[in-house]
C-alpha cells in the first residue's frame, strides 16, 4: 500500500471560487490522497466541504477526516500580536494548515502545540 501526501500551496487555490476549491479538494481526497493545504478554508467553505462529502458517501468513498492547525503562540508581545493582526487583515486570515484525508485511510489526526500526528489505517481493497 502506498500513501500519498500532497502539499497544496495557497497560491494554487486562491483564484478559484469556493465551489472550485471544494471540488478540487474533494476530487483529490476521493483519489486516496492526504492533503496538506497551506492556509485554511473559510468557515462557510469548510461547512460546504462537509456537506458535499456527506452527499458523496457510498461504498467506495466513506468520507473525510479534516483538521485545521493554527500557528498561535502564547505569550506573544504586543507588537508581535499587532503585526499578526495586520497580516491577517491584508492576507485574509489564512494562517495555519489544513489537513484533509480520506476516512478509509486516516484513522485520526492529533495535534498539540508542538506537533501533529496523523495516524493511518490499512486501506481496504475496493
Draw up the topology in text.
Elements: E1 4-8, H1 10-13, H2 18-30, E2 33-38, H3 43-56, E3 64-69, H4 78-91, E4 97-102, E5 106-112, E6 115-120
Parallel strand pairs: 1-2
Antiparallel strand pairs: 2-4, 3-4, 5-6
Helix pairs in contact: 2-3
Please identify the structural class as seen in this structure: alpha+beta
Q: Spatial order of the strands in the main sheet?
A: 1-2-4-3
Element-level helix/strand string: EHHEHEHEEE
Number of domains: 1
What is the rounded Rg?
16 Å
| End-to-end gap | 13 Å
Morphology call: globular
Number of helices: 4
Please provide the count of β strands: 6
* Mean pLDDT across every amino acid position: 84
Largest sheet: 4 strands, mixed
| % residues in beta strands | 25-35%
Q: Which regions have little confidence, pLDDT < 50, spanning 5+ residues?
A: none
Work out the helicity level: 25-40%
Structure overview:
The protein has 126 residues and is α+β, with helices and mostly antiparallel strands. It is built from four helices and six strands. It has one domain. Strand 5 and strand 6 form a beta hairpin. Helix 2 packs across helix 3. The longest helix has 14 residues. The model has no long low-confidence stretch (mean pLDDT 84).
Structure, briefly:
The protein has one domain (4-120).
Defining key terms:
126 residues; alpha+beta; globular; 36% helix; single chain; 4 helices
Amino acid at each position: 500500500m502506498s500513501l500519498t501526501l500532497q502539499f497544496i500551496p495557497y497560491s494554487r487555490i486562491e483564484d478559484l471560487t469556493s465551489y472550485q476549491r471544494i471540488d478540487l479538494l474533494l476530487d483529490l481526497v476521493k483519489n486516496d490522497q492526504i492533503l496538506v493545504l497551506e492556509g485554511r478554508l473559510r468557515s462557510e467553505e469548510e461547512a460546504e466541504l462537509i456537506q458535499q462529502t456527506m452527499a458523496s458517501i457510498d461504498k467506495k468513498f466513506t468520507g473525510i477526516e479534516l483538521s485545521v492547525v493554527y500557528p498561535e503562540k502564547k505569550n506573544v508581545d504586543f507588537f508581535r500580536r499587532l503585526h499578526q493582526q495586520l497580516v491577517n487583515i491584508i492576507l485574509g486570515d489564512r494562517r495555519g494548515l489544513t489537513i484533509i484525508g480520506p476516512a478509509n485511510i486516516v484513522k485520526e489526526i492529533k495535534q498539540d502545540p508542538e506537533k501533529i500526528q496523523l495516524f493511518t489505517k490499512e486501506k481496504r481493497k475496493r
